[in-house]
Amino acid sequence: MVEQGGPRIEEVLAEFLEEQRRRLRPSTFRRYEEVVELFEHCLDNYGYQFLEEDESALYEKLSREKGVEFCAVFGPEKIPDCVNEFLSYFMVRKVLCGKDLLRTSGTVMKRLAAWLAEKGYISQEDAALMAETAREAVRELPRGRDVQELLAEYVEAHPAPAGEDFIEDLFKVEKVEPGKLYLSGGGVSGREETFVVPVPPEVSARCRAGWQVTLGLVKTRRGWRISWVGTVYPL
């Protein structure tokens, strides 16, 4: 919770945008503005997850009685906790956008991290962690979208045949080999085993161990095959 008289997140983000407006070309600034608006929306809807118990209780009371949003209550020290949620989940799952905006979201968060530290709103340590997540997002989010699109095209062109077993889950990519993904399940289905699925070479060349992907798999006489493709989470 902000100290009495301290700036709220919404005020700090407005200050950040105003400074960017003065230094950026109008076309670039519009992209920054779009990302910051999405980030604020993410904070208002998901920021409560990162509150301490006493903060959460107070926020629920204020939200219920006064209808205030997260960004109108808390200060900028809460921003670093929410950046990974924004880049790894919100931008990937909740925002329908192309690879350029995914890449830009990481760029803007990296710049915001440096700016917050320069202004003394967050520590250098928090800024460094925030910037590292942002740098990874710039590199990996567009790659993840490529994999998602390539898998969807592959499944559409090569529908899985009927099989004797079917599973839907959020799978973790444990290992990648040319033309193969090794997946572990268990998050939703409870099936704690390894599933090996064939994929196009373009997919295995881009995919990385540690990623997560929502898939439907069907077991055929030739082994497991992908029957439908959901979201790829590269962070």
Automatic annotation (TrEMBL):
Domain of life, per lineage: Bacteria
Protein name, UniProt field: Uncharacterized protein
